[in-house]
Amino acid sequence: MSLLLELQSVSASYGTNVVLHDISLRVNENDFIGVIGPNGGGKTTLLKVILGLIKPEKGKIIFNNNLLNSNSIGYLPQLSTGDTNYPVTVTDVVLSGMMISKKIISRMSGSDRKRALTVIGELGLSDLANASLNELSGGQLQRVFLGRAIIGNPRLLLLDEPGNFVDSTFENDFYEKLRVLNSRMAILMVSHDLGMISSHVKSYACVNQSLHYHPSSEITNEQLLEYGCPIQIITHGDVPHTVLKSHN
Amino acid sequence: MEGSIFQYDFIIKSLLGALFASITAGLAGTYIVSKRMVFLSGGITHASFGGIGIGYFIGINPVVGAAIFGILSALGVEYLSVKQKIREDSAIGILWAFGMAIGIIFIYLTPGYTPNLMSYLFGSILTVTNADIIALGIMSIFLILYFGLFYRTILYISFDEIFARTYSSYVDIFKYFTTALIALTIVLNIRMAGVVLVISLLTIPPNIAMLFTKVYLKIVIWSVVAGFIGTSGGYAISYFAGIPVGATIIFTLVIIWVVAKGVIQLIKKIQAIRK
Questions:
Q1: pLDDT classification of A238: cutoffs 50, 70, 90
Q2: Which chain B residues are within 8 Å of A71, Cβ to Cβ?
Q3: Which of A108, A197, B60, B209 has a CA between 20 and 30 Å from the CA of residue A177?
Q4: H, E, C per residue of B182-214
Q5: Claim to verify: residue A53 and residue A172 sit in the same structural domain
Q6: pLDDT digits (tens, 9 = 90+) for A85-105
Q7: Cα separation of B182 and B188, whole Å?
Q8: What pLDDT digit, counting tens, does each position of B62-96 carry?
Q9: Does B81 touch chain A (CB under 8 A)?
Q10: Would A78 be classed as within a structural domain?
Q11: Cβ of B169 under 8 Å from any chain A Cβ?
Q12: Hey, how many other C-beta atoms are within 10 angstroms of the C-beta on A86?
């Protein structure tokens, strides 16, 4: 499995407020990393540092340039950053995700459009392909931005709390879609919703100024039974759950 | 005979002026209306009056002075609002009045009579020179090429600048360059509609177009059409009624907007009753 990017001792801050302190992380092809931690802990900042939207104060980010650079990453922001009253259609917005593989003179070909319509269809938005953004619900809008993030087939997909607006009818489809996407792209998914993170996540990064990485297989239920455990998990039936090692 | 030739020339000049004003204002106007930069553009317009005053004072073409002032103030406000050390709307408000103040001071200090001052404030087709028309023509061609070649790039940066930064390193270059072009467009149209009124030439046509479509490219096209009807109609009325052209154009455009809006409301009501 080849390395896509590596963060080496990266620190970032807003003014005097240190948000990330000396964090290191390796992201490999086919990784599906759940980024968890408290609000204000620096999860979104971590994504922005990787995207190049925020310059790290210290440390460096090394891209495996054969596979990835800071301009070819798929990104689903936490809140819609665009103005929903702007005169663009759903198709236009999804097409903008193709820009990660375009030069600045950007023509959209017929096959680009076809591809956009396919993605829109997969996300269950076919009826809204020509709608403007202010006609959509929050969940639909989120799906449009997911379409924008994946249409360019990036090697790395960054998702910032995608569960926030996903309507419940689409939730299962959504996580299933992520599982399929993960076979061809690495995913870094921010979530503060510890209880409901997708079971497709393979490993975890806990971010709260510092970063602790947990490979997925570190503690299984079997190990819990074998070695004993200071905490108790009470569940009914067979809800899957993951317990992470204490940071100390 | 001579009179009719003069009249023919005048009509051609007016129509070309109306056409180029509509093209440049349609392209620049759709951009500023979509991006909610109308207030900024109003500030640029009035700030450029400072350049007109200085132009008179030092004896260069006032349009050149206005262009320099307009572009510098546009880039200045964009830069300051990015740095976020100042409230953008306050900065624009200050710039707006400061530009006018500089203009008034320097025109006052200029010895002798400043004949075309009123035409800069309120616009006048009579004082528009062939050079003005040619400059607007060149600007029209340049804007069509620029927006044509970089349509998607400009559209996506203007829709979602933060997302654009994730895939492009050229966001700032495009943003500042487009803003500079907007400032230049405004200044070149000042001769048509005047400092006080030119901003409406950019904002009313896209708003008419947006009543009918929400697709950016179609808004541009319909803005140009609406702008051309408004400006050429305004010229005709202004010529025959002998009233200032800038005011007549704006009046005509607003009437078109009100009528279009009214018709659409009426159609909606009829459709609702039928259901």
A1: low
A2: 166-169
A3: A108
A4: HHHHHHHHHHHHCCCCHHHHHHHHHHHHCCCCC
A5: yes
A6: 999 999 999 999 998 888 777
A7: 10
A8: 899 999 999 999 998 888 777 766 777 888 888 89
A9: no
A10: no
A11: yes
A12: 20
pLDDT number for residue A226: 44
Question: In the structure encoding, which two tokens stand for residue B143, read together?
Answer: 């804007």
Dihedral angle computed from the Cα positions of residues B81, B25, B23 and B156, in that order, rounded to the nearest 10 degrees:
30
Chain A residues with CB under 8 Å of B160 CB are: 81-83, 96
CA distance B153 to chain A (A): 6
Q: Are B26 and B227 in contact (CB under 8 A)?
A: yes
Contact A74, A154 (CB under 8 A): yes
Total domains present in chain A:
2
**Domains of chain B from N-terminus onward:** 2-274 (1.10.3470.10)
Helix (H) or strand (E) holding B28: helix B2-34
Q: How far apart are the first and last CA of chain B?
A: 62
Query: How do residues A185-224 score in pLDDT, each as one tens digit?
Result: 999 999 865 555 666 788 888 888 888 888 864 544 444 4
Are B66 and B49 within 8 A, CB to CB? yes
Mean per-residue pLDDT for A226-245? 54
Query: What ipTM was estimated for this complex?
Result: 0.85
State the residue range of the domain holding A116.
84-151
Task: Flag whether pLDDT at A12 surpasses 90.
Answer: yes
Q: Are residues A179 and A245 in the same domain?
A: yes
> Is the same domain home to A67 and A162?
yes
Last residue of a domain, one of A129, A151, A173: A151
User: Is A90:A125 a contact under the CB 8 Å cutoff?
Assistant: yes
Smallest Cβ–Cβ distance between B162 and the set A53, A86, A108 belongs to A53
Same domain, A20 and A48: yes
Whether residues A159 and A145 share a domain: the answer is no
User: Mean per-residue pLDDT for A44-57?
Assistant: 92
Domain of A34, CATH number, reads: 3.40.50.300
Q: Which of A97, A119, A151 is the last residue of a domain?
A: A151
Check CB contact under 8 Å for A99 and B156: yes
B159:A51 CB<8 A? no
Regions in chain B scoring below 50 on pLDDT: 1-2
Nearest CB to B215; choose among A89, A95, A99: A89
CA distance A189 to A218: 19
Residue of B nearest to A158 (CA): B166
